[in-house]
Amino acid sequence: MYTLMRTHNCGTLCKEHLQQTVTLMGWVHRRRDHGGVIFIDLRDRFGLTQVVFRPECDPHMHQLAGSLRQEFVIAIQGMVIARDAQMINTKLVTGEIEVEAHHLTILSKAKTPPFSICDEALNVNEELRLKYRYLDIRRGEIAKNLVMRHKAMLAARNFLNSRGFLEVTTPILAKSTPEGARDYLVPSRVTPGSFYALPQSPQLFKQLLMIAGMDRYFQIAPCFRDEDLRADRQPEFHQIDIELSFSNQETFLPLIEELVVSVFKETIGQELFPPFRRMPYKEALETYGTDKPDLRFGMPLQRLDSLVQRSEFAVFQQALKDKGCIKGICVKAAEQLSRKQIENYTDLVGRFGAPGLAWMRMTPEGLSSNITKFFDPSLLTEIATTMQAESGDLVFFVAASEEIVNQSLDHLRRQLAKDLNLIGPGYEFVWITEFPLLLWDDQMQRYECSPHPFTAPYHEDIPLIETDPLSVRSASYDLVCNGYEIGGGSCRIFERELQQRIFNLLKLSTEEMQHRFGFFLEALQYGTPPHMGLAFGLDRLVMLLAQTDNIRDVIAFPKTQRAADLMLEAPSDVTHEQLRELKIYVEQTPKGG
Amino acid sequence: MYTLMRTHNCGTLCKEHLQQTVTLMGWVHRRRDHGGVIFIDLRDRFGLTQVVFRPECDPHMHQLAGSLRQEFVIAIQGMVIARDAQMINTKLVTGEIEVEAHHLTILSKAKTPPFSICDEALNVNEELRLKYRYLDIRRGEIAKNLVMRHKAMLAARNFLNSRGFLEVTTPILAKSTPEGARDYLVPSRVTPGSFYALPQSPQLFKQLLMIAGMDRYFQIAPCFRDEDLRADRQPEFHQIDIELSFSNQETFLPLIEELVVSVFKETIGQELFPPFRRMPYKEALETYGTDKPDLRFGMPLQRLDSLVQRSEFAVFQQALKDKGCIKGICVKAAEQLSRKQIENYTDLVGRFGAPGLAWMRMTPEGLSSNITKFFDPSLLTEIATTMQAESGDLVFFVAASEEIVNQSLDHLRRQLAKDLNLIGPGYEFVWITEFPLLLWDDQMQRYECSPHPFTAPYHEDIPLIETDPLSVRSASYDLVCNGYEIGGGSCRIFERELQQRIFNLLKLSTEEMQHRFGFFLEALQYGTPPHMGLAFGLDRLVMLLAQTDNIRDVIAFPKTQRAADLMLEAPSDVTHEQLRELKIYVEQTPKGG
Fold it and tell me: In this predicted model, which residue has the larger pLDDT, A211 or B370?
């Protein structure tokens, strides 16, 4: 088995190889028998090659070929010949040739797979695909994404290396310093009762590397969060994690843009054209209802508070009284939207708490609907002008609290764009800047930092930290593409005293602060350079490149939303001996499914 | 702080920059005051630049410079000027210039560090260095190793990419399938009582990727073993992990040699000259007493059984009677070895169980010592000839069991080479081949696979699996350099039936086999290509490149031999809430130190 060598893979042979004797190895993708001649599509990761077994060439070989089943692994030797003109397959690199087999070796037989490998259209249940992940990868789509992921990682590494960044590997057996999500814990055997935690990100390590003087760091880092998973999350994921010293936003953001340009170019050949737009957080919320605006299409939200204040529409009036707001969205050439669809959209915004979805159609005579009677004609004209509504357009309104208005109109806007095919091709990037440094957690009755307490406030806002915390902007920046946040970063606090003020604001007790971050507060005192950084979600980035919405499509061996690996059957039982060595007990409860 | 930009780093300025105005940022490495003029060595990762503060330039700045202490982080603007001829430092790139400061900003003050950063010769206690790792890195040596590690990783990735290998990331939350070491476990919150395990290596994942048809895989993979650590081990470490299908040893080993050539060239500029030597396991043990021979020097072991059989030396006779052996080692020009040293060597071999260390000196009159009386003169001549002993040489003998003879003479040989400065420069590689597939574990009374049960036996030895297991050779290969194993790999079993036979031999119960490897045995049935692979110990490789014997010198944030991170203080306590969510209890025992 180990002496035969393939001369080519299954995706390369073409007319220039005619009359050459070749050795191919791969999987039996399809078999067809035509009047005593057996045709095999031989498959490997690189492509398909048609192989012909003729009885007159070698009856024994031909008979063996007759025993071939789907997914057998074989080696064949043979000669490259031209296909008959009518058999040419222009969709394949190898579509002009076939290999006439002289010799066949069966390397490995195969049981019938639980689902077809060769039927590309077949819609296989995802649980089955995950259990037999190795077979699903053979079907091609996942393999293609893994190639893309490989290329993206390598492009990022080479770009960052070319700019003087060093990849430094940081520990995975680290310390529990919860960053807003739950840690995965690892019991220590050597120090029973103590635990490591898997890192939610290398945040503190990379800042320590800056304190260590490493100047420019990166890492494609595994990160872990024990969260109840949403569809687009995994318990382990990867970040392209970057940090640098002695820089500033005006130098750093263009550098990151170049990185993105390089990754898109090297991975999918897509040209991008920086500089990317920038948009303050407030503007994004005001205009798109979200800090992750999809800019591949228009339909901005318009605030109508001052206009509709002059109407007699009780719903709008009430919303304003309740300190809410009214925003509208204008759908161009929306004649095709039926009442039924409008009802669906009403349901959609309802799911985000909107009490209703008002609408008006723009006709040659002006805005018209069953609520226009509450509006002066001149007011309607002003609304139409503000909304830039033209005849045939439809204007939707939501009146509620600011948060509900934004959330529901954001979702409505994106749904409309999908339904009306308004989404342009390509990639639209935008930097969202000037995030608020702090959020108020109503349930916990305290401030929270987003995303983490190491983000520097805007220099000019520092005096407001104690007096008006919620108005303090952070020196942070998220990179958003096509409505997805693909990266986020900030300038970091590099003064111990300022870091302490932030921790105080978070109501961390001195003890807790010491236990969780003592080593870091200590480190900050020995000469910390100004530093900043950013992390890309690698999985999210590859999803964009591969144009899939399923994070499991870009990971070789992903986990389900219940954090299970269906192929490995992990997590699993372990032996009593293993637990005894760790000195831990498991609570005895009936196991959940 | 974030508006000032450095124009150069501290390792670049030279005569070509004379008269340029520059901005530098970095750490105060040393300060010297000379007659009112203050000199600062400013440091960053790239080097040192001398900065001069003159009172006549700006008295306020000069006063501020007077407040600078070690490790303050500062930014300076100034002009590059030539140093006085007698002040030129030829050891520094920047040694011909200095920067006359016009402006000084203190970016960050620093407490006095717990050990000096600038005193290179200072021997700091390793525990203190680990606690303040970020300061230790600033001292330069570790930083240099981390740069080397970065370069080695990137060179490996680019080489493997150029040969069609894809980097595929495999799970870290995996399944407990102990591979001879203890697993680190991670309790599952979603499925209480179940555990993930951190992978000891991606072995099964990479084989599954071959079954998935990925053809050529690599990964720089984090691996975990919960072992009682030896000096050169870490609980987490990295492997350059490689697997490929449809290849064979004669193609694969040269490819790996090219990889090593590329890494050494790109990382330290060292040229290597493949092909590397190959040596069967048996020959390595016979000639060097070890399967990791250091070939930078000679001193092979010589078996003397048949010769000394003819002597009357009772010690040798007894060893032969006990089915042991006698081997000798000849030390060239060993006049300088004193009796005292020989006594030390006797102690050394004693530590490995040798009952004694016999020796003879070669004089112009032949071999001479207090035991030569037991040997015929002609026999002494034959021994001298076999040992290739020349006048002035010293021959050592150990007589004991084969294992003790090999171990003790291996260590003696290496110690002698160190003591006598026989170790040549550079790197001597050798492939060790034809390892035994199985070892007999006397304690457990069963066979064990080394390194893992997926290694293929030599094809021609397969019939011996049940009849004479210990004589079965494996299709495996270790790459040894300068006495260290830096990589190991093998052809893998790709037939389910053969894999089952090996598991049977290991006395795995059907249930255990199913629980641990069921998914893999299942996968083997769906068409498995012949495949093979190898893993390099990245840490070990970088140790060789950096020429250090301490694995902690090549890892940014290493752990101690008690698996503790002294900087983080990990592992650590976690909250009751965290354990409650995982439904686990810790056994209440007084904590160990």
Answer: A211
Residue at token pair 């036979």: B501
CA distance B291 to chain A (A): 25
Same domain as A544, residue A435: yes
pLDDT of residue B593: 41
How far apart (Å, rounded) are the C-alpha atoms in residues B482 and B12?
36
Residue finishing a domain among B363, B397, B423:
B423
- Chain B residues within 8 A of A198 when measuring between CB atoms: 172, 186
Segment B263-309, tens digit of pLDDT: 999 999 999 999 999 999 999 999 999 999 999 999 999 999 999 99
Q: A30 near A40, Cβ under 8 Å?
A: yes
* 8-state DSSP, A185: E
Do A1 and B236 count as a contact with CB atoms less than 8 A apart?
no
**Distance of residue B139 Cα from the nearest chain A Cα, in angstroms:** 9
pLDDT > 70 in chain B, percent: 98
Q: pLDDT tens digits, residue range B396-417?
A: 999 999 999 999 999 999 999 9
CA distance A152 to A159: 11
Per the structure, how many domains does chain A have?
3
Enter the pTM of the model: 0.95
- The question of ipTM being above 0.90 is answered as yes
Write out the residue range of the structural domain in which residue A456 sits.
Answer: 144-279+430-554
* CATH number of domain containing B148: 3.30.930.10
- Quick one: closest CA in A to B555, which residue? A169
Omega cis (within 30) before A187: no
Residue B587 is nearest to which of A176, A215, A584, comparing CB atoms? Answer: A584
The per-residue pLDDT for B589 is 59
Nearest residue, CB atoms, A6 vs list B143, B246, B515? B246
Degrees, nearest 5: CA angle B246-B250-B254: 105
Contact residues, chain A, for B215 at CB < 8 Å = 9, 44-46
Check: CB of residue B348 under 8 Å from CB of residue B340. Answer: no
Report the residue from A27, A185, A214 with minimal CB separation from B45.
A214
The mean pLDDT of B432-439, rounded to a whole number, is 94
Q: Which residues of chain A fall short of a pLDDT of 50?
A: 1, 591-593
Q: Could you write out the three-class secondary structure of A522-548?
A: HHCCECCCCEEEEEEEHHHHHHHHHCC
Q: How far is B460 from chain A (nearest CA, A)?
A: 12
Q: Do A583 and B578 touch (CB under 8 A)?
A: no
Query: What whole-number distance in Å separates Cα of residue B504 and Cα of residue B513?
Result: 9
Decide: helix, strand or coil at residue B233. coil
Q: Based on the domain organization, do B444 and B409 belong to the same domain?
A: no
Q: What is the CATH number of the domain that holds B88?
A: 2.40.50.140
* pLDDT tens for each residue of A127-139: 999 999 999 999 9
CA distance A372 to A314: 12
CA distances from A74 to A6, A37, A352, B526 (A): 11, 18, 56, 13
> Would you call B9 and A564 a contact, using CB atoms and an 8 Å cutoff?
no
Of B169, B187, B195, the CB nearest to A556: B169
Tell whether B229 and B245 lie within a shared domain. Answer: yes
What helix, strand, coil percent values describe chain B, rounded to 5?
Answer: 35, 25, 40
